[in-house]
Design a protein that fits this description.
32% of the residues lie in helices and 14% in strands. With 663 residues, the protein is an alpha/beta fold. It has 20 helices and 22 strands. The structure holds NADP nicotinamide-adenine-dinucleotide phosphate.
């Protein structure tokens, strides 16, 4: 988040005008930081108020007089910086950082957040370095295959590029972006604020909206791939089939197929798998589906060739994808029928479609550290602040409707909101108020969902579907709904973390067999004993469902993987492999923690649990805890094997970097 600031040549009046539109919460903390912690800014008069809104009040609850004083002081500081009469102070230390964070949020922020935020905001370097310059040949001869060029795979590629480790990214699609490439349904976009939902090392001060749409997100990821020089290392249109570990050579033999079906094989010292949890469409198994005469498709395979204008359209499912796409679909379709199996909790978000104005962009670009503190506010508000609401209180007297007192307050708040939105359409109420506790499924953001449900041409059907016929959907009570198009917004094969990939590790053991159909486990979601030099990104139990940004999590995992790889290279060993003890102990802790969280509530169905009821997708940890766990690998949890002093590495990888088409 550090950057170059362009105050030079900006007239006083322009700075003053921009400050009039600045977030006071940011300005107060900036003044406190830039003055090295001047007591003045910690006085109650300037203390930003505690605020539970997703986007806090830009006036921060300060009196009009205090606001004017803050703006005037900020103007003075910025003019002094512009004119070279002042310089930026050194980055805050952890003590000051903790004070600044608490000041900024108007609530105590634990000191454990200080080191994490110092890195996230760019006040401290976050990258892993090679312990000491390794022998050039050890580095040059080491090759990594990254599977997938989505958010996680790109992040890994960018960091490998930075370290000078050679790598190839194999990507099945023709473009980077993963989920942000594949999903292109109407109104597809992010519902984590973009100034947080972006790489910490690649801030974008030009997001057009606070929650940007798919094209802009995809363009951002493309520009990252270009800017960090990873594009030449990506083989597009190449689908990895699996990889076999060669026990003797200590390398992975990765098999893939290109778009023409040709097989290619690459030897790799390490494999980083970033295939994602949310990209294998899950179609329902409804009797007669194949008989439907019109077009039918999954939400992530949107048919842009079909004009929905005036048609009778069905959307099956009411998850995050459905809620986004129905708004625009309802505006085009002649009639829209939404088939709901279970209702979702939906949170108010007045900023969902708000654009970022030019003043805000100017501040982000030009005011030192403004972007960093703005990111901090979003980070904190969208992350661990909500973690407590997901923890089951065993003594809570109303376990049917909520899981603890905070969760119950959320339920009341959300219910009030839904009632207000539904208004006089009270017939909708029994359909849209969930019985399970808030956070039992992924929380959705209101993008006019309730308004859409109230449209004359929209019907929300919560009766069970009996079958699909050539002309429509037949309900359990025999009613037939005639349709032209069916959209399956029915989610993804999330618990089958490997998809169709086959990894064969030491002794030819199969990871698919180890994990079974849907019971994936890994140490920190990243490594598995018996599968040396293989690393998962967005692997088992790393999905975030209390808040946070999956991009942040990817950065944590990639940093950990880079820590493992640099250590491996520095030691000149062949393999790094997680111990069974570490793996078992970690998964015991995960199971214990997730079992005490809302996702295990018997009333909540969600995509996080496998067929046996175990939560395999979600991380139970606060972001700050996972950041700490992944910051540096604990090498006592690993076994290093193979030739020391790097000689083995050089031999190992003879030919490793060469892809050979055909066998
Ligand atoms: P999802 O959350 O799994 O929702 C699938 C929907 O289909 C649910 O309403 C489900 O009902 C219903 N369904 C599944 N099988 C059905 C069947 N046989 N008959 C009737 N209904 C059926 O999938 P999604 O909406 O694609 O979202 C998946 C995840 O992707 C999200 O949770 C989120 O993490 C991510 N996502 C994010 C964004 C964003 O950032 N804005 C947007 C889209 C997706 P039940 O609830 O009863 O199972």
């Amino acid at each position: 988040m550090q950057g170059t600031w362009e105050l030079a040549g900006t007239p006083d009046e322009e700075i003053e005008r921009a400050l009039a539109g600045a977030d006071l919460r940011v300005l107060v903390v900036l003044l406190a930081q830039l003055t090295g912690g001047d007591d003045r800014w910690f006085q109650p008069r300037y203390q930003p108020a505690f605020d539970i809104n997703l986007f806090s009040d830009p006036d921060a609850g300060l009196s009009v007089e205090a606001q004017a004083e803050v703006r005037a002081a900020a103007l003075e500081v910025l003019i002094a910086l512009r004119d070279g009469k002042a310089t930026l102070p050194p980055p805050p230390d952890e003590h000051l950082m903790a004070k600044l964070m608490t000041l900024c949020m108007g609530e105590p922020v634990g000191p454990e957040y200080a080191p994490m935020m110092l890195e996230q905001l760019g006040f401290r370097p976050a990258d892993v370095e090679l312990p000491e310059p390794p022998r050039r040949e050890a580095l040059e001869s080491f090759h990594v295959v990254v599977i997938g060029a989505g958010v996680s795979g790109l992040c890994a590629a960018i960091k490998l590029e930075r370290l000078g480790i050679s790598y190839t990214v194999l990507e099945k699609n023709d473009s980077v972006g993963g989920t942000w490439y594949e999903n292109s349904y109407p109104d597809c976009g992010v519902d984590t604020p973009n100034h947080f939902y972006s790489f910490s090392f690649a801030p974008n001060h030009d997001w057009s909206c606070y929650f940007s749409k798919r094209d802009e997100l995809h363009a951002y990821l493309q520009s990252c791939a270009h800017e960090f020089g990873v594009l030449p290392h990506i083989r597009f249109g190449t689908t990895v089939v699996g990889a076999d570990f060669d026990d003797e050579a200590g390398v992975w033999d990765v098999t893939a197929r290109d778009a023409d079906g040709n097989e290619l094989r690459i030897a790799a010292n390490a494999v980083v798998c970033g295939i994602g949890q949310l990209n294998r469409p899950k179609l329902p198994t409804i009797e007669g589906m194949e008989t439907f005469a019109g077009p039918s498709f999954h939400s992530s395979r949107w048919r842009h060739d079909i004009d929905l204008e005036g048609l009778r359209v069905a959307v099956i499912g009411t998850g995050a994808s459905a809620i986004q796409l129905v708004r625009t679909t309802a505006e085009r379709a002649g009639r829209l029928t939404i088939f709901q199996r279970s209702p979702q909790w939906v949170l108010s978000n007045p900023d969902y479609y708000r654009e970022v104005d030019d003043t805000k962009k100017w501040l982000l670009h030009n005011v030192p550290h403004y972007a960093a503190w703005y990111r901090f506010i979003l980070f904190y508000r969208f992350a661990d602040a909500l973690h407590g609401a997901l923890q089951i209180d065993p003594d809570w007297p109303h376990p049917d409707r909520s899981i603890n007192a905070q969760n119950d307050r959320h339920r009341e708040y959300l219910t009030r909101y839904i009632r207000a939105q539904v208004g006089d359409r009270t017939d909708l109420l029994p359909k849209v108020i969930p019985s399970y506790p808030p956070w039992g499924k992924r929380m959705l953001m209101d993008n006019d969902w309730f308004k859409t449900l109230k449209r004359d041409n929209v019907e929300l059907v919560d009766d069970a579907i009996r079958r699909i016929t050539p002309t429509g959907v037949e309900l359990a009570d025999g009613r037939l709904i005639e349709l032209d198009v069916i959209v399956y917004a029915t989610g993804f094969e999330t618990t089958r973390i490997l998809g169709s990939l086959e990894f064969r590790g030491r002794g030819g053991q199969s990871l698919a067999e180890r994990w079974g159909d849907d019971d994936a486990r890994a140490n920190l979601g990243i490594t598995v004993p018996g599968f040396p030099n293989l690393f998962f990104l967005y692997g088992p139990n790393t999905n975030l469902a209390h808040g946070g940004s999956i991009i942040f999590h990817a950065e944590c995992q990639v940093r950990y993987v880079m820590g493992c790889l640099t250590e491996l290279i520095a030691r000149g060993a062949q393999t790094i492999e997680c111990t069974p003890e570490a793996y078992e102990e970690y998964n015991r802790r995960v199971d214990d923690a997730v079992g005490r969280m809302v996702w295990a509530h018997p009333g909540a169905t969600n995509w996080y649990r496998n067929s046996a009821g175990r939560v395999v997708c979600n991380s139970p940890w606060r972001l700050v805890d996972y950041w700490q766990m992944t910051r540096e690998p604990n090498f006592e949890e690993f076994r290093f094997d193979g030739a020391a002093a790097g000689a083995g590495s050089t031999e190992l990888v003879a030919g490793a970097a060469h892809a050979t088409d055909g066998r």
